[in-house]
Write a structure and sequence with these properties.
Blueprint (H helix, E strand, L loop, with lengths): L1 H6 L7 H23 L1 H8 L18 H19 L1 H51 L2 H6 L2 H43 L1 H21 L3 H24 L1 H6 L3 H27 L1 H27 L4 H42 L20 E11 L2 E12 L3 E6 L5 H8 L7 E6 L2 E2 L5 H6 L1 E4 L10 H5 L8 H10 L3 H5 L18 H15 L3 E5 L7 H14 L4 E5 L11 E6 L2 E6 L1 H7 L2 H10 L1
Parallel strand pairs: 3-8, 3-9, 6-7, 7-8
Antiparallel strand pairs: 1-2, 1-4, 4-5, 9-10
């Protein structure tokens, strides 16, 4: 229940629905009890045991209300029975039907209003989870399985939703039904009622002992569900490679092993949960058996209880067993839900390591440029950058070259604050980027990655990602600069064509040109090109390279390149090796130095 207390905070906006649910549940419980006690007059009429009341009873006050109501009902029935017994029977049956109608009407309204509460909590939890996911740093998802995160947003949240309903039933509806029923039972016979009352805590203790391990077993099931969802996500994401390496069998065996574990874990969980129903029913039958013995003795031997009252008492006892059984089932559901709530809250309460400054600054324009000052960065135990110093002056194009793993892409990610430096600082116009509002910082930076990242949406919506208010004319201009307009117009619906999951309906070169057009449309102050032309054919590469050179004019540009022919016009070329600068200068200067850069150029010319 520890985690459910935190989940209950999500019920705040829906307090009115909680109040209405409680209101209608009170009347449901009340009429649930009265609908069974109304059997007494009907049975009395059937067996001719209606007490004879010849004179109209007089109301003497609240203290004598019970006797007055009983005598008045008996008086009316006595008068009707004398005139027409069948009509009296019809009236008593009508009373029962009305009470059951009211009971079920209140039950419907109680369920009607709790639906808004349940679905509201479900909506708000998922919204908060999604907000948390997109706010968390990229490093979080490098360590976590995506499938497990999806499982927390779907299956775990649904489990909480069902458990939330069970809690309301346990604490409001079912106990009220038991209380009202017990009040009526005590009015019939105290000794029999005490016998029933003793049963409730005993059965609760027995069922609770059975369900102690349920939370641990439920947590194991939910974790395994996250694992096989991760396998699905990885397989679909890399299906081309899976098929190319004929690894279908390997991935199937991996998935089957996970679902097999889920099968066994879930069987254990459900079988233990299923104990609640037969156990509570067996205990209930035991109580009914005891009542039949004691009550039967009172009717047949002691003659201290009438047959009609005893039958009504048995019906009331049944009315207690039903909610008692529901409570036992709910206790199991709550344990499962608590495990789900723990997993959901673990994600919601994860601390974001990329913190916003308490007093973030806003950059309107960049006047001097970007400075990397003694930057250190480590990921885990791997040191990727060490004492790194570099300045990107306003309007200057700086190219980063070097072998894979030398730290080029890491610098681009640090500039965007996808990660924070381990030491030193990165500043823009002398302001540490940690002191700049993250949204403002990223508005100034346009990114074109080595792998074109597009979304299952229209061409227009992919282009407008960085500028939501862009007009069609602006999109067309950006697409023309990126040499993308012609192929877009050849698509079935032009700029309104859906390009599929990850842009799967486009070729590699088309996807890259579209991502370049997206960066052009954003019109950023700082441009980061991470192998932006690597997926283009020679003809397109020349056109796009020319467009990019125009785009980079008067902008601070950081270009990461493996294809060295694309960066020869850069103002400064920085050669990296294991996170350190080994050479720096223009293309001409570095070629004359005949060092690491010249060696790389010669290797690519071979």
């Amino acid at each position: 229940m520890t985690y459910f207390k935190k989940i209950f905070a999500y019920a705040g906006p829906y307090k009115i629905f909680i109040g209405l649910n409680v209101f209608f549940n009170i009347f449901y419980a009340l009429f649930s009890a009265f609908s069974f006690i109304a059997m007494v007059p009907m049975l009395n009429v059937l067996f001719g045991e209606t007490p004879k009341v010849d004179s109209l009873p007089t109301y003497t006050g609240l203290s004598d209300l019970k006797n007055y109501v009983t005598n008045r009902m008996n008086y009316e029935i006595s008068q009707t029975v004398n005139d027409d017994p069948l009509f009296a029977l019809m009236l008593t049956i009508g009373l029962i039907l009305v009470l059951f109608l009211l009971k079920n009407t209140f039950n419907y309204f109680a369920l009607f209003f709790i639906t808004f509460l349940r679905n509201g909590i479900l909506k708000d939890l998922r919204n908060d989870l999604f907000q948390k996911i997109i706010d968390l740093p990229i490093s979080f998802f490098s360590e976590k399985k995506k499938g497990d995160t999806i499982a927390r947003m779907t299956a775990d949240v649904l489990e909480i939703q069902h458990s939330f309903l069970s809690i309301l039933e346990v604490f409001i509806r079912e106990p009220l039904t038991i209380v009202f029923t017990l009040i009526l039972m005590f009015n019939i016979d105290v000794n029999l009622s005490l016998f029933v009352l003793l049963f409730i805590p005993i059965s609760g203790l027995i069922i609770s002992s059975i369900g102690k391990a349920l939370k641990r077993k439920s947590d194991r099931v939910q974790k395994e569900q996250g694992d096989f969802l991760s396998i699905i996500e990885e397989t679909l994401g890399g299906l081309t490679i899976v098929k190319a390496f004929f690894a279908e069998k390997q991935f199937y065996q991996k998935f089957a092993a996970s679902t097999n574990r889920f099968y066994h874990y879930n069987n254990t969980l459900i079988n233990r949960q299923n104990l609640a129903s037969p156990m509570s029913e067996f205990l209930g039958i035991g109580v009914i058996g005891g009542l039949l013995w004691f009550g039967g003795k009172m009717v047949l031997v002691d003659q201290t209880l009438s047959g009609t009252l005893f039958l009504s008492f048995m019906l009331l006892a049944y009315n207690i067993l039903t909610p008692a059984k529901a409570i036992s089932k709910a206790s199991y559901t709550i344990r499962k839900g608590d495990a789900a709530a723990e997993r959901v809250l673990e994600l919601l309460e994860t601390e974001n390591s990329i913190k916003e400054s308490s007093n973030p600054q806003q950059l309107d324009e960049i006047s001097t440029g970007v400075q990397f000052n003694k930057v250190d960065f480590s990921y885990g135990t791997d040191r990727l950058l060490e004492n790194f110093n570099l300045e990107l002056k306003k309007g200057q194009t700086v190219a980063l070259v070097g072998e894979s793993g030398s730290g080029k892409t890491t610098l681009a990610k640090l500039l965007n604050r996808f990660y924070d430096v381990s030491g030193g600082e990165i500043s823009i116009d002398g302001i540490n980027i940690k002191d700049i509002a993250k949204e403002n910082l990223r508005q100034h930076i346009g990114v074109v990655t080595q792998e074109a990242i597009l979304f299952n949406d229209t061409v227009a919506n992919n282009l407008c990602l960085g500028k939501h208010s862009a007009t069609l004319e602006e999109m067309v201009n950006a697409a023309k600069i990126a040499n993308a307009h012609d192929f877009i117009m050849e698509l079935p619906h032009g700029y309104q064509t859906n390009i599929g999951d990850g842009g799967g309906k486009l070729s590699g070169g088309q996807k890259q040109r579209l991502s370049i057009a997206r960066a052009i449309l954003k019109n950023p102050t700082i441009l980061v090109l991470d192998e932006a032309t690597s997926a283009l054919d020679s003809a397109s590469e020349n056109l796009v390279q020319e467009a990019l050179e125009k785009l980079m004019q008067d902008r601070t540009s950081l270009v990461i390149a493996h294809r060295l022919s694309t960066i020869q016009k850069a103002d400064t070329i920085v050669v990296l090796d294991k996170g350190k600068i080994v050479e720096q200068g223009s293309h001409k200067e570095l070629m004359q130095a005949n060092g690491a850069y010249a060696t790389l150029v010669k290797l690519q010319r071979l």
